[in-house]
Design a protein that fits this description.
With 271 residues, the chain is α/β, with parallel strands linked by helices. The chain contains 4 helices and 15 strands. The strands form 4 sheets. It has a 5-stranded parallel β-sheet, covered by helices on one side. The chain has a 4-stranded antiparallel β-sheet with strand order 4-3-6-7, with no helix packed on it. It has a 3-stranded antiparallel β-sheet with strand order 1-2-5, with no helix packed on it. β9 and β10 form a beta hairpin. α1 packs parallel to α2 and α3 packs parallel to α4.
Length: 271
């Protein structure tokens, strides 16, 4: 699924944009229902619906839902105002619930323009710190709260974090520059073909697998303000070029960073 709560085209109120991929693993066509409930940050039910869908055997369909919520800008998520909606998706077959998932969604947009990262159209003044959740949920929550009191508003993990890490950051209004799990240790400055794993075309599939895993795992979290294509010494080359192009093809708004780009075209920011 992909869930967004964004301002209406006229700038008044908010709208829910929800895309749900429904897969049928049976041999024959199946009819089912996809439903959702959405609660405001004040825990009030503000919208719900059920949609019918038929999916051919051994295939999938995407259900696109667009609806006006009528909510105001006071609920736009940001570091200073980390308000979260609660959205529950469910699937029914033969009138019986088969699957459901509940998660939080932050209203608003993160964009990149003129060399700046913007949240809800306003530039973000980034004060960052390296951080990796090497502890339990409770310990990480206390550590991230402490960083917030020190004025840090953006975390830079070295690799993908536990799912609850992003939930913590959503709830505290802590921005995150997410990083793909790409950390080769040799030839970072070697631009010859094969001189670094990042410039070895035989490894392109491995790079894309890790970049896609990063993106699809965290794309619904409002805390994510940019994506990084690997570690600081990951090197640059063909695999990084293709990874940048793929990520920009699916992520139209947020910045993509290659810390080893060294002035080349495949990084929106130097970081």
């Amino acid at each position: 699924y992909d869930a967004r709560i964004v301002p209406n085209a006229n700038g008044k109120g908010l709208a829910l944009e929800l895309d749900v991929l429904v897969r049928n693993d049976f041999n024959l066509e199946e009819s089912m229902q996809v439903g959702y409930d959405i609660y405001s940050p004040d825990n009030k039910l503000i919208d719900y619906a059920v949609r019918d869908i038929s999916v051919a055997g051994r295939s999938f369909e995407t259900l696109n839902i667009r609806t006006v919520l009528g909510e105001g800008s006071k609920y736009l998520w940001s570091s200073a105002n980390p308000k979260l909606y609660r959205l529950t998706l469910y699937i029914k077959r033969d009138g019986k619930p088969r699957e459901y998932i509940s998660f939080r969604v932050g209203a608003g947009t993160t964009t990149f323009a003129d060399g700046k990262i913007l949240r809800n159209g306003k530039p973000i003044a980034i004060n960052s710190a390296r951080y990796n959740a090497r502890t339990t949920y409770g310990e990480a929550l206390a550590e991230i709260k402490a960083l917030r009191t020190q004025g840090v508003n953006t975390l830079l993990p070295d690799n993908p974090q536990p799912e609850w890490f992003y939930d913590i950051c959503d709830g505290l209004g802590m921005y995150v520059i997410e990083r793909a799990n790409i950390n080769p240790t040799e030839g970072a400055d070697n631009r010859k073909i094969g001189g670094t794993p990042s410039n070895n075309p035989d490894l392109l599939g491995e790079y894309l697998t890790r970049v896609k895993a990063m993106y699809y795992r965290t794309r619904n979290h409002p805390c994510i303000i940019a994506y990084a294509l690997g570690g600081d010494k990951a090197g640059n080359g063909y695999n990084m070029y293709k990874s940048y192009q793929w990520l920009k093809s699916v992520e139209k708004q947020r910045a993509v960073i290659c810390t080893s780009a060294d002035g080349e075209w495949n990084s929106d920011l130097e970081f």
